[in-house]
Amino acid sequence: MDPQVPLGESVPPNTRYAVSVSLPTWEDNVDYEKGISRVVDRMVGGYPRFFIARSIQKLVTMVKDRFALPSESAMLFPSLKCAERCVAFIYDQAPKQHSADAEYALPRPGQVRIVTHVVEPINKKAAALDATTDALQTPVTIYCVFFPADLFPLAKQYWQHTGDGISARLADHCLRIARVNEELEQTTAPLSPFGSCGMSRRKHGSGYHRAASAAVSPSPSSSGRPTPTADAFVLPASGELRSAAEDDDVLSPEAGIEADTYVEERFGRNLSLKYTANMKAALRRRIAGALSEEEQKQGAQVERGVAGLSADDVYIATTGMGAVFQTHQALLRIGRGKSVCFGFPYTDTLKILQKFGPGAYFLGHGEGSDYDELEQILERHSQSDSEDDGILAIFTECPSNPLLKTADLSRLRELADRYGAALVVDETIGSFPNVDVLSWADVVVSSLTKVFSGDSNVMGGSIVLNPNRAHYARLRQTMDAEFEDLLWCEDAVFLERNSRDFMSRVPRINANALAVAGMLAASPKVARVNYPKFTTAPNYELIKRSTADAGYGGLLSVEFAGGEEASRAFYDSLACCKGPSLGTNFTLASPYTILAHFTELDWAARYGVSPYLVRISIGLEPCDELLAMFQKALDTIPA
Length: 639
What we know:
With 639 residues, the protein is of the alpha+beta class. The protein has 3 domains: 169 residues, Aspartate Aminotransferase, domain 1, CATH 3.90.1150.10; 198 residues, no CATH class; 228 residues, Aspartate Aminotransferase, domain 2. The protein is globular. The chain has 24 helices and 21 strands.
């Protein structure tokens, strides 16, 4: 891959659904966080929970043109439950985040509402011929949350934290149907029974088929949450899109993609969409290590080390943060206590624990006296007379992002058992070919967007329940009753395809990263390399698998003796792809703290996360080329 990707272009290049975007210089990252137009205006995409994809933005425009009141904005969700949670979040957080200089007024009852929109091809045969893959011919329902435009930052928080929003592939599916409907109207007019804009003129009582607005009142229900009322009517997608979307690439999913990529996606290794259920079942088996005989022959087997584990204990979420969020939601249904975030986590994990439910304790160092403080917290809450005042769960990452620390899971497990808390471990960075955390945890979550996929073109997450832990029965019952399978079928296609060689890629990435980490650690220009082999190493060795291929993963972060000047010089000269995300098959770097904590740099620094830290995700390139590239970047740092 050519690492010289221009500013704002997708990473990987020419990839419509890329989950990263090129920010090739340190200043580009700073200006992106400041919202400077020279950067923001050139971005064709970004990490999907932070940057709402262009196709989703176009679909929002279409929906707003149809249903919005003046000065309203909208967010789109794949289920009514997701939309209801967004509404509840806005009403809950608006007064909590409001201040005298706030740029929004508190929403009134009914001012935040849900519209149910059913996208259905008028001519299913034409829709099938138009699609670049097998088209679904059944209606697709999306749920639109409308709110005053000045509340957009609050709604965007919900979108970012939970990963509940619709995927770009689903948005493109809706846009394709809209185009087919409009073209049919144009070719059949004026004899068509259909009116303008693709709206079916089938009667519904005395009016036309339309979408219903479900106003959501902030008055609490018996559950303490706002109670929406919804009534859905069928509405074929509108041809208004043609006037609203001037960019042809939005209406043509294959536009802007190189021909060989298009052919590969249409005629290559992807299975038909009619096998979506089979693909999701294969993903669950792959994650559980309970694979078929044929899959084992392909070398994709790994023993989870947990007796009784089955694919039924695995749940596939739409994003990695969705897996964290759904786990937290399930735990809140079986208890109401606070949680503990142990160690410095990826930013949205802490935000989920703080903003949803009764809140959380944050032990951000994740070592030393934090264990004693954790025990004191657990003991104090155990003495409470209230049944809802115990500690609900302990959340930790093994290793953590970006400091690559590993918690002592044996000690956390002992404390969790003693005080009745659940232990939730995020294994994204370590990945299950390298580490066994499920043996210690009640629940293991992971972002499948990262090394499990590797191709950086699809989002996904997983939740695995340990059948041998005390909370299993209630968690399994709750998950089976409440969990929604919302992974869009086309996303499932790519996630299944990309992960087939997951087990063979991980050892190669391990070897490359170990070599790079060793070289950087030996340089006098480097102050510190954060890597599991060097950072809290005994704790990592406790969970590291004993197989020959197990290693320390592909992620590391580095701090330089020369501070910001050295970090800038190293980053700007590093000849690899540069942008958000990690776990890619290619090497990817970012000034992590700038991107993740730009508005709270001093706070992050208190927990050892330097504002000048450079995070590097090592890929599959030849090792000698990687070492030469990093040495060249080191050479640009003043002595």
